[in-house]
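Practice problem 4.
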């Protein structure tokens, strides 16, 4: 664990900076360790206490080595291993060969790899002050000053056990990512502090416990005998107040809020179910258009929970072989005599629900962390089939194209995953085509562009799905290594063979012209008829896929297209 910075920062202090100042100037001795009990830092007060020459003499040694005798060392070991707050009287080694009696307090704070011990050595008064500071930081959000998720969960559990009904509101800030990406973290923090202040103000005259749960999510537990009408009125007031602009650098920044509401009777004792119900209601509020509230309805909630049960069964479905790969041809316009690739997609042959398309269960996988395993299953199975076709048909083997689910596309190990599967099947990168969407390119959770650049350098082919000219310009601006794009969405649906609106045809023509300038070919997903394909071709679209071609072909059925393909290498 690195030593905290000793410098006092300018302006408002962040939590870490406040701790660094407290740590460096505290008169009590403070030792920081990792979860295994290895010392990472010691403040000046402890160095004086232990008469240590320098901090470097202690860093890397074990906490137990600080004890003067066997009992002292055992106490320190137990304190580290238990993870609990500990107070005791021990003796520590004080150079050159003496010992010093101290009051020991051990507390832990959460970190990236577990709970990190903080050991304090000094008189009871100073230690108590420090304990209170650390305890407050462990239970509160440093940005807003509100209780954090762990504190809220504990408080909610206690409230559900009391002799009073409770209403739980989950609040999510709509459009927060736009503020964060467009105006920066400082402005985004200003907005979050503003939302926190608004919620405090709205619920100031009620028995409300307000917390920040995660990035732009808040929760409010309102206890007392409030009827549904009052809770809804408070929610509507909160939505109105949050919508008022916050001004920064002369800009009026506006966001909205969605609220999910769930209620429980006195002594319900089931805080977990209450939280799930509020979360379901919040999801429904977001799905209905945001900037509104939804009260949990048991009937519709059961339907949502049914979806969650389906999500939980994905892992078993992969293992049982219920989720398989199907194929659809991507053809060259206008006559579809040449196939550029066979697009691989997953289907779930569910024993009770029948065949489920990937669009029906991939969104559910995000809830259970199964998106990447599904994507890896698709990649592995498609490449295994590609390898078999390569042996049978040689250069006439169909190119395999597959769309990466977003969570897999932004995975930091995407390059390693793809290279490992190619090697496993004896294939070269040029044998695979990957399709990604623009949302994955700009997803802040990963760096897809870096992965694409590395894979494209190896020879792998990329295609990006777009919905219009702005997406194409983003590809150009970010120098995305994709020689082709696939147009999808309302614009393709608008260019119908009968009464195609002039604006839609003009938009496609303009997009194709701009793509030509960039050296990018344009294809289209969702083509429904040969007539629509011919119209799109007249506008410059060169490749198509959709309902007018066979869909959900098995591997055997897809093989008949092998002789109509051409290599992309």
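Answer key:
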């Amino acid at each position: 664990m690195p030593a905290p910075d000793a410098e006092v920062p300018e302006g408002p202090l962040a939590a870490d900076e406040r701790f660094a100042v407290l740590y460096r100037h505290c008169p009590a001795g403070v030792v920081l360790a990792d979860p295994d009990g290895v010392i990472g830092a010691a403040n000046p007060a402890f160095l004086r206490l232990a008469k240590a020459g320098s901090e470097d003499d202690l860093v890397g040694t074990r906490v137990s080595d600080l004890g003067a005798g066997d009992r002292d060392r055992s106490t320190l070991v137990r304190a580290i291993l238990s993870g609990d707050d500990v107070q005791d009287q021990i003796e520590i080694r004080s150079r050159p060969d003496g010992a010093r009696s101290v009051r020991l307090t051990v507390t832990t704070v959460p970190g990236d790899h577990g709970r990190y011990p903080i050991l304090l050595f000094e008189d009871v008064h100073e230690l108590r002050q420090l304990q209170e500071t650390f305890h407050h930081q462990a239970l509160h959000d440093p940005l807003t000053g509100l209780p954090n998720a762990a504190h809220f969960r504990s408080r909610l559990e206690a409230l559900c056990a009391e002799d009073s009904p409770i209403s739980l509101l989950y609040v999510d800030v709509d459009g927060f990512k736009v503020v964060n990406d467009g105006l920066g973290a400082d402005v985004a923090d200003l907005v979050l502090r503003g939302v926190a202040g608004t919620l405090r103000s709205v619920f100031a005259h009620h028995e409300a416990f307000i917390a920040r749960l995660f990035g732009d999510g808040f929760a409010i537990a309102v206890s007392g005998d409030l009827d549904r009408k009052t809770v809804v009125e408070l929610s509507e007031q909160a939505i109105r107040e949050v919508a008022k602009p916050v001004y920064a650098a002369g800009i009026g920044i506006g966001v909205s809020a969605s609220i999910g509401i769930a209620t429980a009777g006195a002594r319900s004792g089931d805080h977990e179910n209450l939280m799930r119900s509020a979360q379901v209601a919040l999801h429904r509020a977001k799905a209905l258009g945001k900037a509104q509230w939804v009260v949990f309805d048991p009937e519709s909630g059961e339907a949502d929970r049914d979806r969650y049960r389906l999500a939980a069964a994905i892992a078993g479905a992969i293992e049982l072989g219920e989720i398989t790969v199907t194929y659809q041809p991507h053809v060259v316009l206008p006559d579809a005599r040449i196939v550029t690739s066979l697009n691989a997609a997953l289907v779930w042959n569910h024993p009770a629900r029948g065949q489920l398309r990937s669009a029906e269960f991939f969104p559910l996988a995000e809830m259970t962390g199964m998106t990447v395993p599904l994507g890896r299953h698709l990649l592995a199975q498609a490449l295994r089939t590609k390898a078999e076709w390569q042996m049978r048909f040689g250069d006439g083997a169909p190119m395999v194209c597959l769309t990466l689910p977003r969570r897999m596309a932004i995975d930091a190990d995407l390059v390693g995953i793809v290279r490992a599967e190619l090697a496993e099947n004896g294939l070269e990168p040029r044998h695979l085509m990957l399709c990604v969407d623009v949302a994955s390119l700009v997803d802040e959770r990963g760096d897809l562009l870096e992965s694409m650049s590395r894979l494209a350098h190896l020879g792998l082919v990329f295609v990006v799905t777009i919905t219009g000219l702005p997406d194409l310009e983003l590809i150009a601006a970010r120098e995305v290594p994709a020689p082709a794009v696939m147009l999808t969405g309302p614009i393709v649906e608008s260019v119908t063979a009968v009464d195609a609106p002039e604006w839609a045809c003009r938009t496609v023509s303009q997009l194709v012209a701009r793509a030509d300038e960039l050296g990018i070919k344009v294809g289209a997903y969702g083509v429904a008829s040969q007539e629509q394909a011919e119209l799109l071709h007249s506008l410059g679209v060169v490749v198509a896929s959709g309902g007018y071609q066979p869909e959900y072909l098995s591997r055997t059925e897809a093989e008949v297209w092998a002789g109509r393909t051409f290599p992309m290498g």
